[in-house]
Design goal:
Number of helices: 15
Number of strands: 8
Order of helices and strands: EHHHHEHEHEHEHEHEHHEHHHH
Distance between the termini: 14 Å
Strand content: 5-15%
Low-confidence stretches: none
Length: 329
């Protein structure tokens, strides 16, 4: 069956990884960047990708094109439109507002541009959203602190949480101050952990205050860490297509999503980087059905997990829950 028109949530979607390649080409031209004729294809992850670091190199090529208030506003607006077309009724987009500070683009301007696009997108499409600000593991730790403070500053304008992404070989411990600040300010926390790194990274993320874990597929390597996550009520934000492309799992049959769902672990299904991957959330739902043997009732449960875990107000979650119950009936 097709899941396109069933109401869904996407809690783990990178704004910069969701931009349409043709939009990036247009933004590059507007910025006067000299891009090669094959630029659009270089904005997509190559089929030969074999690791997360290799996956992330795609971003190094196109991020300069996105470093403007207008560019982020357009990216966020188009993401709302793409989510609407895919049956998504609520999503949380994440990005690092400090990506372009070395080029003179202020983090506040970046946040405001993204929020402007999301607000315009909601008015046009009716799709609700929140914005999560990220630190980057292999960037200076003070930038994570900046993101934490900005998350609090813009908490009443659409920013809903703090995350950290990037290469897991770079230690999370260096960013302790930023997450301590977020906890002090009451900013909700999600952390990329156990995607390409070990289960111990998930334990560390929980200790840093994460109530949601980005990916977390390698948590299965340590049952004690998984048990701790379950005890704390943590939610795993899993992304099937992305995990295959980064080789975080070697084949779909070994992905823990289905087993987690059947075992009662709080787990959600998300896109990660739909523009870079050339994928949609609908395709991941269909993949879960065809390749993991999950049925509609089980996948509905994953959507309801997303409702419960969303960094949104209780009234918003209640509204989303009602729409899911009606749409999936």
């Amino acid at each position: 069956m097709s899941y396109q028109h069933l109401p869904k949530l996407d809690l783990h979607c990178h704004l910069d990884g969701a931009v349409r390649p043709e939009t990036l080409v247009a933004l590059a031209a507007e910025a006067g960047l000299s891009w090669p004729p094959d630029a659009a294809s270089r904005c997509r992850v190559a089929a030969t990708c074999r690791s997360l670091p290799e996956f992330l190199k795609t971003f190094e090529f196109f991020l300069p094109a996105l470093g403007s208030r207008a560019g982020l506003r357009r990216a966020a607006l188009e993401l709302c439109r793409d989510m609407k077309a895919d049956g998504v009724i609520y999503f949380e987009a994440r990005f690092s507002p400090t990506l372009w500070v070395d080029a003179g683009f202020a983090p506040e301007e970046a946040v405001e541009g993204a929020l402007e696009g999301l607000r315009k997108g909601e008015a046009e499409t009716g799709v609700k959203s929140g914005l999560i600000l990220c630190g980057i593991r292999n960037f200076p730790p003070e930038r994570t602190l900046v993101a934490a403070k900005l998350a609090y500053k813009y908490r009443d304008r659409g920013v809903v949480g703090l995350d950290i992404a990037g290469d897991e070989r770079s230690p999370l411990a260096a960013h302790r101050e930023g997450f301590a600040e977020a906890r002090k300010l009451g900013v909700p926390i999600t952390i990329h952990a156990g995607e390409a790194g070990p289960a111990s990274n998930v334990r560390e993320a929980l200790e840093f205050g994460a109530t949601r874990i980005g990916h977390g597929v390698h948590v299965v390597e340590d049952p004690a860490v998984l048990a701790e996550a379950v005890k704390r009520g943590a939610t795993f934000e899993m992304c099937l297509t992305s995990n295959l492309m980064t080789h975080s799992v070697d084949q779909m049959a070994n992905h823990p999503f289905a087993q987690f769902l059947r075992d009662g672990v709080r787990v959600t299904l998300n896109t990660d980087d739909p523009g870079v991957q050339g994928s949609t959330l609908t395709q991941d739902f269909e993949r879960a059905e065809k390749e993991l043997g999950l049925g509609k009732p089980e996948l509905k449960r994953a959507v309801l997990h997303a409702v419960d875990a969303a960094f949104a107000s209780e009234s918003t979650r209640a509204s989303l829950r009602a729409r899911i119950e009606e749409g999936w009936r």
